[in-house]
Amino acid sequence: MQIQLCGETNRKVEIVEKGLAIKMKGEALRFILVGIVNTLHYYLWYLLFSEVVGFQYLIGHWMAFCISMVGSFYLNTYFTYRTKPSWKKFFQFPITYVVNIAISTGALYALREWVQLDNRVAPLIATGIAIPFTFVISRRVLKGGV
């Protein structure tokens, strides 16, 4: 069954849809900026663990990932989605990283082992591959499924 909206109601729906689209674009842009900062944060820890300390690259990846996740939570909560942090959100936020760590770890392994990409380049590409998935899931966790 199709419902016909009168012109005035239809116009209000269009305005709301455009407002949501603009808001999503702003959030996406802020998410990318936070992602750049967080990727740099992760990457410095990764290099420290894998290049300086000498841990195997996947161990360094996981350690750097866990450390940078805490910073990412606060940056995304305050800056990207402009919400307040809570313990509930803090403990739900790793859900976003389950997907991220699975995708980025798989990509890192493939890039290192199969493509033979350099240890300093592969994690950056692997992180980029996971970004769209992380945006969608983190938005749901931090904004409540909007």
What this model shows, in words?
With 146 residues, the chain is mainly α. Helices cover 82% and strands 0% of the residues. The chain is built from five helices and no strands. The chain has helices at residues 7-53, 57-80, 87-92, 94-114, 122-143. Helix 2 (57-80) packs antiparallel against helix 4. The longest helix is centred in the first third of the chain and has 47 residues, at 7-53. The protein is globular, with a radius of gyration of 19 Å. It starts with 6 loop residues before the first helix and ends with a helix.
Helix content: over 70%
Q: State the order of secondary-structure elements, H for helix, E for strand.
A: HHHHH
Mean pLDDT level? 84
Beta-strand content estimate: under 5%
- Sheet with the most strands, sense and barrel status: none
The stretches of 5 or more residues where confidence is low (pLDDT under 50) are none
Shape: globular
Distance between the terminal alpha carbons, to the nearest Å? Answer: 26 Å
Q: Which oligomeric form is depicted?
A: single chain
Count of helix runs: 5
- Estimated radius of gyration: 19 Å
Q: How many runs of DSSP E, i.e. beta strands? A: 0
Category from helices, strands and their pairing: mainly alpha
Keywords:
146 residues, 5 helices, globular, single chain, mainly alpha
Helices and strands in order, then pairings?
Elements: H1 7-53, H2 57-80, H3 87-92, H4 94-114, H5 122-143
Brief summary:
This protein is mostly helical and 146 residues long.
